[in-house]
Write a structure and sequence with these properties.
It is a single chain. The protein is α+β, with helices and mostly antiparallel strands. It has a single domain, classed as Gcn5-related N-acetyltransferase (GNAT) (Aminopeptidase). It is built from four helices and seven strands; from the N terminus they run βααβββαβαββ. Strands 1-2-3-4-5-7-6 form a seven-stranded mixed beta sheet, with helices on both faces. α3 links the parallel β4 and β5. The protein is globular.
Length: 141
Amino acid sequence: MIEIKQAISTQQLMEIFEIRRIVFVIEQQVDPSEEYDEFEESSTQFIAKYNNVPAGTCRYRATENGFKLERFAILQDFRKKGIGAELLKKCLNELQNEDKKIYLHAQEHAVGFYDKHGFIKEGDLFFEANIPHYTMVFQKS
């Protein structure tokens, strides 16, 4: 069973940072100084639990361009179980009444996933933390 909650406790934030450390810093070899940033406290953070075990996370924040969804991370043992889709749905539900653009920077390997969920590529390939990305924008129906 997948449960998504907004992170409000220190314990939840510690679980989120551990998931991100494993996925981004260890698996993808992102420099920790690029992974943890000044937007941690101004972002709305979510934690996903699978059968009550911390399994994934994401966040969104307001920017000058709209709302940016970011830091989607699912622990390896929990991938392909629908957790990423549930996290994405949670963000989109939270922002459904907003009039601003909803966008993200998708790692190249994840473009197909976001495309299935209503995002389209905008612009050229670019690198963030030495990983190829595309900007993708949500197409509201």
